[in-house]
Amino acid sequence: MMAEEQGWNIRSSFESRHCINPIPKLVDGGKFKPNPDKQLIKLNIGDPTFYKNLPPSPVVIQAVTDVLQAGKDNDYKKTPGMAEARVAVAKKFSYPVNPVHEDHVIITSGCAQALEFALTTLCDPGTNILILKPGFSMYKVNTDSRQVEDRYYNLLPEKSWQADIEHMESLIDDKTRCIILVNPSNPCGSVYSKEHLLEIVAVAEKHRLPIITDEIYGGVVFGGAEFHALASLTDRVPILTCSGIGKSQLVPGWRTGWLILHDNHGRLEDVRVCLNNLWARILGSCGPIQAALPRILSEVPDEFFQNTNRHLEATSTLAYEKLASVPCILPTKPQGSIYMLFGINVDQLDGIADDVQFAEQLMSEESVFILPGCIFKYPNYLRIVLLAPETLISEAMDRIAAFCQRRMKAKRAE
Length: 414
Known about the structure:
Structural class: alpha/beta
């Protein structure tokens, strides 16, 4: 007998119904089927562990091994995380202009939870936040489920994906709660200059808005770019910095991150108290990884990070140069993170209406898996992940080029 006939009326909540990540929704839709005659090359997910070519530092492995063998950190950890871990984060991310006290550090289950905490404490239903376009889909997942409006400010591909400052400011009203910034960028691969970051700070200061800055790829830069942590440049506005060890240390599954309140003027004190309330609700992140965090943040040699960046510089250069030679493709050379975004001129391609169809057909014909830009609110662009070995990146770019050549419309005679 049907549940309705028995008088049952069990419904899911508004939040759960609207907590939808567009990436698995699109990918699991069943249209991304590889060509069985070609090796599948997956450049769709930003997981540095997938191809096993970029292992974590032995220092990190040993730090966690020692904690586990000692057996002293299998308990619940106090709000808002182990004191030793918070001290280590505060020390690592304090700056002369913006020192950090351990009480302003929240240890979280990855950067994703840090972002969720920041948005939950700042936003009520009916308010709005400024989100970058193109931008990572997880921000919208958080806002949709909380009935918070997304207002998208444009990034400019012709200016290496800098923010359109004038457009950003035009979106602000009395219900705007914060500006979200991602640097280095997912999905663009851009790295903002000091001067451009200060332009964004000036907008936030003018309108008395805090900035949530996602710096999970902080330090993952190459090609002569320099990363500037936003909090290292100013204390004029409150800054909520979200980051973690997942991408820089190449251990995303360890789910350990942090939220730092850079707030020397006490403007986020109410937010800090409420963040502790949220942390207590979930009883915190993994205890052993928290215990190992001081060693992870202080003992991994610079050469480890330089090796990762050298790999990304090589793969990004390879991908850019190969794609730049394809007439219908408009690539922008990345400077940081692990991604590259490129545009397609669909008018030059037979049987391709948009970025989704490009990605689906590329998968079915060439077994190369990349994500369509519509996921990032940027149609007719596509994102590739640059973590794979150089040989696979080279092969994937050759397949993309071959796919485009087969689809190119014949030029009309003059």
